[in-house]
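ugh ok fine here u go
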Amino acid sequence: MIAVHRGRLAGDGVELAYLDTGGAGAPIVFLHGAMGRGASWLPVIEALAPRHRCIAIDQRGHGRSDRPATGYDRERYVGDLARAVDALGLARFALVGHSTGALNAWVYAARHPDRVDALVLEDMHATSRGDAEVEGWRTWLASWPVPFPSLGAVKRYFAAIRPSLGDYFIELFEEHDDGWRPRFAIEAILATIAGNEARDWWPELAAVRCRTLVVKGRASDLALAEAARMAATVPAGELLVIDGASHTVHVDRPGAYAAAVGGFLGAPAIADDSDAGLEARARAEYDGEARIALDPAATALVLIDMQEEFVSARGGPFRVPEAARRVPAMARLLAAFRARGLPVIHTAFARTHELLDRPALGARMPNRGPDAADDASRFEAARFVDELAPLPGEVVVLKPSYGAFYDTPLETILKRLGVGTVVLAGTLTDCCVGTTARQAYERGLGAVVAADATATSLPELHEAELRILRRAFARVATVDAIVDELGPPRAS
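structure:
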């Protein structure tokens, strides 16, 4: 655990609580969203603190800060931030904001371009949603069964909405005589949302002069088109959509979020190169999110080794039970590529060149039978499972080893097709799929691995291999995310 200083800052009649890791690294100021508090950033701060001085502020009406009855408009929030960074002696810094905190961050950056080095804006819209947004919040907040009888009841209630929200919300409640109630006043939150929706905030976003990362959770209600427009509005803007996350991206996927923020802000001299600091950085990297987008005009599906030998009883000791269970997801991905007229390439492990093209030491590996010739006889020809069988015109690449690029024409085929990114699915995650992803990386090709359309023999190895690929070789995404990113099917 990192050491943090907790303090309070006075100004404009409202004291603000904050936490500060100190240190000599480039400073980052974190701003939470409506209802939140600075402590919700701690998992992200844990990963970034070795390189940065991290400061998280409880904004007015939230967390341990003062809770005035009024004053939740944009001027007050941004004014509080201006006084806080001055009091902390920050000349230049990065701002990371979530939702309401993101809006406060970009309005401040627009007004103080000489102070902000970079912005990270997490899941906040710039177009007003009007009174409907306020009324939606009012209805939702009124539905909470407060007071809760215990902190455990708080956790269970919000975890039922989304598992990651259980721990998030227990930080937002405090004990009273009659039970557990929010650390904020409901009317203060509604006033905050009303201020957010009072008008559009595009002019302020257009006035930002620093490089900006717009982060959207794949499952959030921020429209992808609006997030893309936001990134295009600012100079050096960049959009990152993180899979497996909704509105609270830094809570749903803290490792991926920290890795993305750390990568975007750059890696100045490490402030803490202790064992603990290096381990924290590595953990964030293993949960990272490679910024590899899918351009439908230059993307192909490589479906790896979905042969009867790996799925049915025909394979004997080579059968992978999980591969059979993943066939429906693979079929959905395959159908999506076909419906969009995108290239599909099937690979198969087969008897080629009298086995002379196989790595010489294969028979010595623990995953081979005592009789290598008998093992080879199971793969005399490419026999694909019916649901994934190639259609006429789809390329089949026969390969002699794990990686689909090893001693095959795959690289040449992809170049001829104008492909720059491959989506990988099939089996085995930790052998053929993972090796192919590494080989694609080494050839300058982007690789996106379909996490729920790959399979291997042991669940823990599947997850471990995906983490390794995330850190250094490929983007890992769900079938739903991949299909969504490919856009609509072509007109028939």
